[in-house]
Design a protein that fits this description.
The complex is a heterodimer of chains A (335) and B (173). Chain A has 335 residues and is mainly α. Chain A has one domain. In chain A, 65% of the residues lie in helices and 4% in strands. Chain A contains 12 helices and 4 strands. Chain A starts with a helix and ends with a helix. The radius of gyration of chain B is 21 Å and the shape is globular. Classes of the chains: A mainly alpha (335), B mainly alpha (173). Chains A and B meet through α4, α5, α6 and α12 of A and α2 and α3 of B.
């Protein structure tokens, strides 16, 4: 119970500070300062934003379909926050004889649980677009559902290679199979055979799944105002915002666990420090992944819609299948 | 505790199915079907088949029903009109459904080998299911995959209609 509260608190804080990081980094990339006024380096900006979201008037436009209009942001945020439950953050901490696994719950189909919960999260976006009774929102919702279904297939297929190599659905076991070294290269899945291709596919599909630039067509502000959340204001809008960033963090955690060796890294120093070091490596890798997210956002322009679909179905999908076949053959040959 | 949860989600499942028929708006019906799928997944989970439960959510709730909702949104389907229902439906349909239900219940009671399965005792681990699928039931499994392939080819054929005459754009839509 304490663990759930703690994890949720850490997750929500990191969601808030990912927003701050994004504004700061993109600001510097575009030769401006980003947030600076609230607190040192603008560090209190997320707090100010939160207060602003809470105090703003919560408008409900007159012609919306109310039950779904209210339910949609809830679905989005609940799905985004729930999937963190099965993600392990490090090895077990042992304090005074008790061993505390750094994970809310360890299920043996952890990966499938994350995929299942995130796949239900599409409803939040799709229903928000439909229930708003607005053509821009509807187009955003339509684009989101088509895009998410298309890229979910590539995402799933890119993960199957890792599953074949590790032989388990449990996220903890997948990480434990990546401990050790081949000579001097760490035994991470990304270095196993041609799994870096799978990592590339995962990266692309994950950007599309979380509706980030260059795949942010559901909320393309140059053509759709704000896409599916055009009609939302105050806390309901903030819920979509939180869901997007929480999804980013989940995706980054999954990438770390599946491809980058999870919490494996060099251990040194006194015992207490050593106990905390795995979690530090995990957080560091997630941070790097999030930074790449923001970097890409500051660099790439948006795709056109037909380019998006062609890229997904004609490039990523065949490549994912080819990678799967090669990985399966290699693993079968070695065993 | 398990039994209570099982009954509760069974009730939710049935309520969702009834609501699916009762709703007039296609989106509401589709969402009721999502509820049915999700509560079925919980039932599988309670029976110990966690892999099937996860796949149920990913495939049905996460993919098939999203496509349903997508199509309803795309066609912008409105509220359906109510009719009084045909006489044939009342005269033949209701007794037919009752007879079918009774038949299924009778078969299940008589032929299922007697006794009930304890909750959480079914083999549900992915390894067990993989062994069953790829050793014992390999032929049906492969036949199903061919069936799916045929369906995909059919869909491609139907979608790939000859373009109307005009200057070729060279772009896909």
């Amino acid at each position: 119970m304490i663990k759930i509260v703690l994890v949720l608190f850490v997750l929500l804080t990191s969601v808030a500070y990912t927003v701050w990081l994004e504004r700061k980094v993109v600001g510097h990339m575009q030769n401006r300062w980003g947030p600076t006024y609230v607190g040192p380096f603008g560090l209190l900006q997320p707090l100010a934003d939160g207060i602003k979201f809470l105090l703003k008037e919560d408008l409900t436009p007159p012609h919306v379909y109310k039950p779904l209009f209210i339910a949609a942001p809830m679905i989005a945020v609940i799905c985004a926050l729930t999937s963190i439950a099965v993600i392990p953050f490090g090895t077990a901490l042992s304090i005074g004889g008790y061993s505390i696994p750094l994970q809310i719950t360890d299920v043996n189909i952890g990966l499938l649980v994350v995929l299942g919960i995130t796949s239900v999260g599409v409803y939040g976006v799709a229903l928000a677009g439909w229930s708003s009774n607005n053509k821009y929102s509807l187009l955003g919702g339509l684009r989101a559902s088509a895009q998410m279904i298309s890229y979910e297939i590539c995402l799933g297929l890119s993960l199957v290679g890792v599953l074949i190599v590790s032989g388990s659905f449990s996220l903890r076991e997948i990480v434990e199979s990546q401990q050790g070294f081949w000579h001097f290269i760490p035994k991470w899945n990304i270095f196993y055979g041609c799994q870096f291709i799978a990592f590339f596919i995962y990266l692309m599909a994950a950007y599309a799944e979380t509706n980030r630039i260059p795949f942010d067509l559901p909320e393309a502000e140059t053509e759709l105002v704000a896409g599916y959340h055009t009609e939302y204001s105050a806390m309901k809008f903030a819920m979509f915002f939180m869901a997007e960033y929480a999804n980013m963090i989940t995706v980054a955690c999954l990438a770390t666990l599946l491809f980058l060796g999870g919490w494996s890294g060099p251990l040194f120093g006194p015992p207490l420090f050593q106990a905390l070091l795995p979690t530090f490596w995990f957080v560091a890798k997630v941070f790097v992944f999030l930074f790449i997210y923001i970097w890409v956002r500051g660099t790439l322009p948006r795709f056109r819609y037909d380019q998006l679909m062609a890229f997904g179905w004609k490039f990523l999908f065949p490549m994912a299948i080819a990678n799967l076949v090669v990985t399966a053959l290699v693993v079968a040959y070695r065993s | 505790m398990h039994l209570v949860l099982f009954l509760v989600f069974g009730a939710i499942c049935t309520a969702g199915a009834v609501n699916l028929l009762a709703q007039t708006h296609p989106i509401s019906s589709a969402l009721s079907l999502v509820v049915v799928m999700a509560s079925l997944a919980v039932e599988y989970l309670l029976l110990g088949a966690e892999f099937v439960a996860a796949v149920q959510v990913i495939v049905y709730a996460g993919a098939v029903m999203v496509l349903f909702v997508f199509v309803i949104m795309l066609l912008n389907a409105g509220i359906e009109e109510r009719t009084k229902g045909s006489h044939v439906a009342i005269v033949l349909g209701v007794p037919g459904v009752l007879a079918g239900g009774l038949l299924i219940a009778w078969t299940l009671l008589k032929r299922s080998g007697g006794g009930t399965v304890a909750l959480g005792s079914l083999p549900g681990a992915p390894q067990t299911i993989a062994k069953q699928l790829f050793h014992e039931f390999l032929l049906p499994f492969e036949l199903t995959s061919i069936l799916v392939l045929i369906a995909i080819m059919g869909a491609v054929f139907l979608a790939n209609r000859p373009e109307p005459k005009g200057p070729a754009t060279g772009k896909e839509s």
